[in-house]
UniProtKB/TrEMBL annotation:
PANTHER family: OS03G0124300 PROTEIN-RELATED, OS04G0586500 PROTEIN. The lineage of its organism: Eukaryota, Viridiplantae, Streptophyta, Embryophyta, Tracheophyta. Residues 824-844 have a biased composition (Polar residues). This is Protein kinase domain-containing protein. It comes from Hevea brasiliensis. It is found in: Membrane. CDD domains: STKc_IRAK. It is a single-pass type I membrane protein.
Length: 844
């Protein structure tokens, strides 16, 4: 039955896509060309669109000698087969000619830098031009992918090029000297004439201090899309765009500092499009969802809501901001005014969305051009900040943003290409700790440098110090992390004075304590003159080890920024104190919501979303920065939940340090494990890999499923250890007997089975049998998808097949002993809050 359902799933997806497409989008492109390069026949991509194979391409003169078709050597988990799994390898200059109508076109180029017929694309550098514009120059898709904050295996680039009358669109691929080019997919889609470019007599606001307030460009300028975000909402996939197949990403990972308030859901508002903002401008979901500063005007007046966007230096950028006033309390102009700063310059002093739209629910967008000067760093951040204006009604001191697009404009010579990013990460990995390679214990050197330092209250905690390090290919890179830099990165996070810390915690008042452990005490405090809550961790000792941990935590945390990692606001090291200031997590730890708690049980979907978030955070730790970071203490009490229930991994990297010299190939790190979570292989063989985190995470998954701690010593022997106990039930196919009884009627059987399979694979005794965190993330997302599909089918139809039914056993005997407290009843109101489901695969 379940097998059948699994077979049907892709079909269900397809039907869904099909019906969604029935709602005719506001814009129908006159041209839409999709070429799946290297494919011999036509095929559909996941979004249901049909791509043409290019074996007998009418656009490109491919020839099997100079441009063979080729298949990728492996399919990464998030990699769609179409168009990414096949490619054209291009050995000499090649021009594809598209006979299209005059007008602006989106040109989207898709790259999956894998190995093709034994040819590694890490050696591929090439230039792409479209008519007289240089889109990419000496471009390396491999470097582009490797440089991402959150690594994704593929990249697509989007450009807007206007094709003139009596002109064709010519795309030319030119390999760099002694290199080759490759391409997986090409998409050409037309767009409305004046969507992004204007006539010369229309002008753009030019944000540039003391200079000409206007900037002009017309359709002779080509653009590259660098960001397109549905601010405060989630991902809007290309098929849900207004007909141009643009993808709108989630904005949260670009936020700097306080995240404001995401208004992710609104279904009682109908967006009233206008002549100035036609319905194709942006999908209605972009305008209904938004991010505001927060509910407390006095707090809002004290901070800036800020985003930072890495961009190439030396270009001008078009920044398009989308707004829509949807609050019923706003009834007139001048009620709600705010500043818009771009790169710290005032782009708008009295933004008044109601006034701009001339009413509620009317969308508007504002365009600004900003020059990012050519300075030494090839990359700079483009800053966007919002701040309430004092002239607004004090009741409404707030600011909003619904959507954002940032485009790079070509330089006067028609060039759009920036340099390749500098990727400090090594192209090769140390064989013992590589992401995909198996851990071969014998070849791995482990240096033990430490000793036991403490214990936590509720479980025996094993602390040991081990050193593990992934060798870097370039000595240059090694040296950058070689020494424990004692200068702290004041540019990356804020330094607080002791007086500020004392004021914020009422002089470390006991009533402010929100946690404690071997490391010290955590207080809730209010920083920025009492306006912003923060978690303030005061380290206990000023031992030599403590100092090092303190420094490295700051160094690491200021480098590692991810929506699923708790972020560091600042630190204080006055008066021999070591204090770390983190963002405050209103919903506490995941453990707080599973057992030993009075809070209402979490619905299954939310549990899945929390697990996905935490898995993404760990995946980022393992693979996201140039050095693999192993958490070493993954447990439900180290997974924190923010006000939108987004999971954030905390307490990581406390003791990670770089190697002391160039030829030393190991990093000293403190290895900690909590009893019940500890990887048995690591314990036995004392070899630490990312897979130890995977094991601990598997234990967390079981906790989430059963709502009980990993160890309960006063139970019958076979039930003491959660992993052992659950494994027995799993092997009998009886996992449903030990799940949290509160999940009954909520959890779907398909998702339970998938979830059980994931948890079981994570807690395998042998590390190499465990999946990577990337695999785990993907599988959990799949479990969520299974759950949502099954639920939809249950609610949509009466004749539910057995396999889709929600589990509803009456047999809770099994659980009454072991599955956490059940004295409270299930809250059916699922609080209306959806947790942010961030789309990490940044396809930008
Ligand atoms: C470019 O813009 C001009 C007006 O500025 C317009 O007359 C012309 O038709 C446009 N060309 C194309 C190909 O869209
Ligand atoms: C584009 O380049 C071609 C030569 O490659 C040249 O003939 C043509 O005038 C150029 N067009 C523009 C608009 O600069
Ligand atoms: C292309 O880029 C690579 C890496 O950024 C660089 O090493 C190489 O010299 C560049 N080649 C050319 C022709 O600019
Ligand atoms: C498109 O929108 C529908 C309905 O909101 C949603 O269920 C689906 O996941 C979306 N698809 C993509 C690819 O964003
Ligand atoms: C939409 O906005 C216009 C003004 O731009 C207004 O006249 C019209 O009544 C609005 N329609 C709805 C349904 O609110
Ligand atoms: C904007 O100001 C912040 C400090 O307030 C600074 O760190 C940043 O570099 C500035 N950004 C630009 C683009 O000048
Ligand atoms: C907000 O940003 C602007 C521009 O960078 C800056 O002048 C101002 O001081 C900031 N305000 C706060 C409260 O940080
Ligand atoms: C805003 O108004 C308050 C009180 O009216 C004043 O104290 C504060 O300095 C003002 N801030 C700015 C940025 O003008
Ligand atoms: C883009 O390139 C075209 C053609 O070279 C040029 O006419 C135009 O001025 C450039 N745009 C900008 C903003 O420099």
């Amino acid at each position: 039955m379940i097998g059948l359902l699994l077979l049907l799933l892709p079909l269900l997806d397809f039907i869904f896509v099909f019906t969604a497409a029935q709602n005719r989008p506001p814009y129908t492109p006159t041209e839409s060309i999709l070429i799946n390069c290297g494919a011999s026949s036509d095929d559909a991509s996941q979004d249901g669109r049909r791509w043409n194979g290019d074996a007998q391409s009418k656009f490109c003169p491919f020839n099997s000698q100079t441009s063979p078709l080729s298949e990728a050597s492996q399919q990464g988990h998030s990699v769609d087969r179409v168009p990414y799994m096949t490619a054209r390898i291009i050995h000499s200059k090649l021009t594809c000619t598209f006979p299209v109508l005059p007008g602006p076109k989106f040109v989207r180029l898709y790259f999956y830098p894998d190995t093709y017929s034994g040819l590694s694309t890490s050696a591929s550098f090439f230039t792409v031009t479209a008519n007289n514009y240089t889109l990419l120059s000496n471009f390396s898709a491999y470097l582009a992918v490797s440089a991402k904050i959150q690594p994704v295996p593929y990249v697509f680039k989007e450009f807007i090029v206007t094709v003139w009358d009596n002109q064709e669109l010519k795309l030319t691929f030119t390999p760099s000297p002694s290199s080759f080019a490759f391409i997986n997919g090409v998409e050409i889609v037309s767009l409305p004439n004046y969507l992004y470019t204007k006539d010369m007599d229309n002008r753009y606001t030019f944000v540039y201090s003391d200079s000409n307030p206007f900037f002009y460009f017309d359709n002779s300028t080509s653009l590259e899309t660098v960001y397109r975000l549905n601010v405060g909402g989630g991902l809007v996939g290309n098929i849900n765009d207004t007909g141009m197949f643009r993808t709108w990403f989630d904005d949260s990972k670009y936020i700097f500092g306080a995240t404001g308030l995401a208004h992710e859901w609104r279904d009682d508002v109908t967006i009233n499009y206008t002549k100035d903002t036609p319905a194709y401008t942006a999908p209605a979901t972009v305008y209904t969802t938004k991010r505001s500063m927060g509910a407390e005007p006095s707090v809002n007046l004290k901070y800036n809501l800020t985003w930072r966007f890495p961009v190439d230096s030396g270009f001008s950028y078009l920044v398009r901001l989308h707004f829509c006033e949807t609050e019923e309390s706003i009834t007139d102009t001048n009620q709600w005014l705010f500043f818009i700063f771009i790169n710290n310059m005032t782009a708008e002093a009295e933004a008044d969305v109601f006034h701009w739209g001339r009413g509620r629910d009317i969308p508007v967008y504002k365009d600004y051009v900003i020059q990012v000067p050519k300075e030494s760093p090839i990359n700079q951040d483009l800053w966007l900040s919002l701040h309430p204006n004092n002239h607004s009604n004090p009741k409404y001191a707030d600011a909003i943003l619904n959507g954002l697009e940032i485009f790079k404009l070509n330089k006067s010579d028609g060039n759009l290409a920036g340099p390749n990013p500098e990727v400090p990460a090594p192209p090769e990995q140390h064989p013992s700790l590589g992401r995909r390679t198996k851990s071969k214990g014998s070849s791995e050197t482990i240096v033990i440098v430490g000793a036991v330092i403490g214990a936590f209250a509720f479980a025996v905690v094993v602390f040991s110090f081990f050193c593990v390090y992934r060798r870097k290919a370039k000595a240059k890179d090694t040296s950058s992390s070689a020494t424990i830099a004692l200068s702290l990165p004041t540019d990356l996070c804020r330094k607080f004075t002791m007086a500020e810390i004392r004021a914020s915690t009422r002089n470390f008042d006991d009533q402010n304590i929100i946690g404690s452990g071997g490391f010290g005490t955590v207080y809730k405090g209010y920083i920025e003159s009492g306006s912003i809550p923060a978690a303030i961790k005061r380290l206990a000792s000023s031992s030599k080890q403590g100092i090092r941990e303190f420094h490295t935590e700051i160094q690491m945390l200021s480098k590692l920024r991810h929506v699923h990692l708790v972020s560091l606001i600042g630190y204080c090291n006055d008066q021999d104190e070591m204090i770390l200031v983190y963002e405050y997590m209103p919903h506490g730890t995941l453990q707080d919501h599973l057992y030993k708690t009075m809070s209402p049980p979490l619905p299954w979907k939310q549990r899945l979303e929390i697990c996905i978030g935490a898995a993404r955070g760990l995946h980022y730790l393992h693979t996201g920065s140039n050095q693999s970071v192993i958490h070493r203490d993954v447990k439900s009490s180290n997974i924190l939940l923010d006000r939108n229930w987004v999971a954030k991994v905390s307490d990581f990297g406390l003791s990670k340090t770089g190697p002391a010299g160039e030829d030393q190939t190991h990093v000293s790190t403190v290895v900690r494990g909590s009893f019940g979570y500890l990887d048995p292989e690591y314990y036995r063989r004392q070899q630490l890999t990312e897979k130890s985190d995977v094991y601990s995470f598997g234990v967390v998954l079981l906790e989430v499923l059963c709502s009980r701690p990993p160890v309960i010593s006063n139970l019958p022997k076979e039930e003491v250890i959660l992993v052992e106990w659950a494994r027995k039930y799993y092997q009998r196919g009886a996992l449903d007997q030990i799940i949290d009884p509160q999940l009954k009627g909520d959890i779907t059987l398909v998702s339970l089975n998938k979830f059980g399979e994931i948890a079981d694979s994570c807690v395998r005794d042998v590390a190499i049998e465990r999946p990577t965190m990337g695999d785990v993330t993907w599988s959990l997302e799949f479990a969520l998808q299974l759950h949502e599909t099954a639920e939809k089918n249950v609610s949509a139809r009466d004749d539910v097949s057995e396999s889709q039914k929600l589990i509803n056993t009456d047999d809770d005997e099994q659980c009454t002993i072991s599955c956490g407290p059940m004295s409270y009843s299930r809250s059916t109101a699922s609080t209306g809050e959806r947790s942010t489901s961030n789309y990490d695969a940044d396809k930008k």
